């Protein structure tokens, strides 16, 4: 009997999953689609626990010129394409803001600075012995490091931190970096949830806008989050983004498990994709494609019990806020929906926070 691989529940680091031989569903053709799109800035909006971070670490490992990733991509679909030769060919700036949530603007500031500081420090370690101390670029680089390390500096002093890092990295490598930002909207959600968005809105506009709007030092950028960019309000400077939501076919197969992938995963753990599983977990359609929540499927494969695994994975603040403000016509329609009826719903896709 073939030994079962460990399931990567709670593990969203691509390198660790591949090196330690965890069960992995091949989503590497997303890299091909990203390259071929030639979009300057891509935002993919998906619900929580649909594999966003895993895919972002996969993208990082594929492109990152500072590491050797050939072994961990062996046997995967991207290596059978014409783009296999691009592995480890570009500098990558990788930021994850998924843990940047705080009750005060001050606490959020410290979390953001820490994330940025770690990425600056990574590049400082790479180039430490190759920097010309008297060069203005070097002085500016270390000045930003000091700003990020200093707990007394405010938002205005690191508004251009991402932009400056792209400029520094391109200058060093003579290749424009790939910018990856995982959960770009978590700090913004936190600012709304705890009532200090008025203090931070201008910062986010400059922070993202300066890095991704007409930045000659940027190659391609990829952002993930649960919310699409609103082209008004705080993102007035950041309107060149191509947004892919759950309504778009592009990138649809790469977040969540297709019916075939779900069946293969469950079969590998002596379970079947039967009617009960379909009824419990088949509730998603992205770009017209039927998908299953990977968090629920993997937990079911692990425990063998049909349970509500996904429900406690986020605060659902935005949904709760919307429900608190809902009027009587909404609740009348909602009552029909939960009774099993269908209702027509108008969607405003250019939604602002």
Describe the structure.
This protein has 353 residues and is an alpha/beta fold. A hairpin with a 2-residue loop joins strand 7 and strand 8 (289-292). The strands form 2 sheets. It has a 5-stranded parallel sheet. The chain starts with 13 loop residues before the first helix and ends in a 15-residue tail after the last helix. Helix 5 (136-149) packs antiparallel against helix 6 (161-173). The longest helix has 23 residues, at 105-127. The chain is 42% helix and 9% strand. The chain is globular and about 70 Å long.
End-to-end gap: 52 Å
Radius of gyration: 22 Å
Low-confidence stretches: none
Please, how many helices? 13
Q: Estimate what percentage of residues fall within beta strands.
A: 5-15%
